[in-house]
Amino acid sequence: MDNLPKALTPPLPTRRLRTGHHLTELGLGAAQFGNLFRATTDEVSTRAVTAALDAGIRYFDTAPHYGLGLSEHRLGQALAGATADVLISSKVGRLLVESPETADRLDDDGFAVPATRRRVWDFSRDGILRSVEQSLARLGTDRIDIAYLHDPDDHWETASTSGVAALIELREQGVVGAIGAGMNQSAMPAEFVRRTDVDVVMVAGRFTLLDQSALDDLLPIARERGVGVVAAAVYNSGLLSTATVDSTAHYDYGQASRAVVERAIQVADVCERHGVSLPAAAVQYPLRHPAVVSVVTGMRTEEHVRSTVARYGEDIPESLWEELHSSGLAPDPARANSPRQRRRDLLSQTSYVC
């Protein structure tokens, strides 16, 4: 495409999956290309992709769920003329079916798009094969680099059996490269790693400066099994996205509690003492764990891309992570790689009065 950069910069540093795929440490999440919460345009989305490629981002994540297929379509169009090697992940489990009876209204799941289709949960073999076929058509490609089972929280039995089996079949055929699951919790992804042949999992909001629950279950088993982890929603819905904490900001898709806001302010204060912005620390924090292969953040515009890349590249002294760790605000992932290590650290910080 004419608006793609003529001389692309080299890719950002990458980390490798066991399948041989290399993900840039920073990935673009394309949910907003699907008109998440408000409408955007094809042109704005394409400019964001152009800026991402020019900045060295080569990993792009999307899903049929995002705008009832609009995100996949826009991402595919924006990457159509790209000369760089890019890696695309999409998702299965929410099959899109035509819905003419609702076409006169807007989608009721957070996307500003006409409800010409509806989502149907389907982790069966047929549902997954149909979903991948539709995604390939919207993306305009013949292969998806990573296919995630999307939010199978209430569908463990089907997703972990026929769902995984269908993805393995597609992986063996070369239609998808790596397979995994993407969720807003860490316990079930840990079970996918423990019980199934997945290559990578995406965990949203459970490995951040405010929530390190993935350190207790997912990250230890992922590292043990050689499964990559992609950390998403590192701003926890917005609370960590600004240098000064906004007490009215959202946390995990809802209003942040006073206790959470106060903790975020404490973390921000530590960052300020070390000359670091809170959002930069939020982006870089998960990358300190050896199982994490990429951090994916939502980027709607080229301005979002530039600011996020700047956060990723901001110089952060080790003293910041040391203070966050020693204060108990956020364990250093480079040190706290297991519940046992976390317990040892906690005991070492505890004073006993006899």
Q: What does this protein look like?
A:
The chain has one domain (14-349): TIM Barrel (Alpha-Beta Barrel). The chain has helices at residues 42-55, 70-79, 125-139, 156-173, 187-195, 218-225, 258-273, 278-284, 302-313, 318-327, 339-349, and strands spanning 14-16, 22-24, 26-29, 59-61, 87-92, 94-98, 117-121, 144-150, 176-183, 200-204, 228-232, 250-251, 254-255, 292-298. The model is unreliable at 338-354 (pLDDT under 50). The strands form 4 sheets. An 8-stranded parallel barrel has the order 3-4-5-8-9-10-11-14, surrounded by 5 helices. The chain has a two-stranded antiparallel sheet with strand order 1-2. A two-stranded antiparallel sheet has the order 6-7. 37% of the residues lie in helices and 18% in strands. The radius of gyration is 20 Å and the shape is globular. It has 354 residues and is of the alpha/beta class. Strand 3 (26-29), helix 1 and strand 4 form a beta-alpha-beta unit. The longest helix is centred in the middle third of the chain and has 18 residues, at 156-173. Helix 1 (42-55) packs across helix 2 (70-79), helix 2 (70-79) packs across helix 3 and helix 5 (187-195) runs parallel beside helix 6.
